């Protein structure tokens, strides 16, 4: 492993699903917005241009909410690992990492820290199968290279 090697990992399958869902949601809300015309039923109200704009706006907000799930990524190099999940981000040096875990049946991989915390890495999802396994192996190689550089024995 060279000191300049940078590993960048992002989920694949969830990104495709999220983009397709966001586009479909926006199309559905736009179609509903164009159908909002005339009276609201037996009442005295009528749909106005503002109601149509509001429906499109709700579609945009919903699509943006779905696209939050495309945010996760993991970057790692010889110095440490940077994890960005759906809502939070972490930057950790390898010194605080005990190991990289991808337990059987787990939805995603995680970092096991020396203080016994587990930090999920949503970017490495079981749904991505071999891509996620290869990513975990690459992270483990970087972690092992760091341990070897310290002269320590690798923790299992």
What does this structure look like?
The protein has 156 residues and is of the alpha+beta class. Helix content is 40%, strand content 23%. It is built from 3 helices and 7 strands. The chain has helices at 13-35, 49-67, 130-150, and strands at residues 7-9, 73-76, 80-84, 89-93, 97-101, 108-113, 118-125. The chain has a 4-stranded antiparallel sheet, with helices on one face. Helix 1 packs antiparallel against helix 2. The longest helix has 23 residues, at 13-35. The protein is elongated and about 80 Å long. It starts with 6 loop residues before the first strand and ends in a 6-residue tail after the last helix. The relative contact order is 0.17. Residues 71-141 form the Low molecular weight protein antigen 6 PH domain. Keywords: Membrane, Transmembrane, Transmembrane helix.
Largest sheet descriptor? 4 strands, antiparallel
**Total E-strand runs:** 7
Q: How confident is the prediction overall: mean pLDDT?
A: 89
Structural class: alpha+beta
Helix content: 40-55%
Query: Quick one: overall form?
Result: elongated
Radius of gyration: 23 Å
Topology overview:
Blueprint: E1 7-9, H1 13-35, H2 49-67, E2 73-76, E3 80-84, E4 89-93, E5 97-101, E6 108-113, E7 118-125, H3 130-150
Antiparallel strand pairs: 1-2, 2-3, 3-4, 5-6, 6-7
Helix pairs in contact: 1-2
């Amino acid at each position: 492993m060279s000191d300049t090697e940078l590993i960048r990992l992002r989920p694949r399958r969830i990104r495709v699903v999220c983009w397709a869902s966001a586009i479909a949601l926006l199309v559905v809300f736009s179609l509903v917005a164009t159908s909002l015309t005339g009276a609201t039923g037996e009442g005295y109200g009528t749909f106005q241009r503002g109601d149509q704009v509001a429906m499109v706006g709700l579609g945009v907000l919903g699509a943006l909410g779905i696209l939050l799930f495309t945010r996760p990524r993991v970057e790692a190099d010889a110095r440490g690992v940077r994890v960005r999940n759906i809502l939070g981000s972490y930057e950790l040096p390898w010194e605080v990492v005990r190991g990289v875990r991808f337990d059987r049946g787990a939805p995603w991989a995680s970092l096991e820290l020396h203080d016994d915390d587990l930090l999920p890495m949503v970017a490495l999802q079981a749904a991505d199968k071999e891509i996620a396994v290869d990513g975990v192996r690459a992270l483990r190689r970087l972690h092992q290279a760091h341990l070897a550089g310290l002269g320590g024995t690798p923790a299992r």
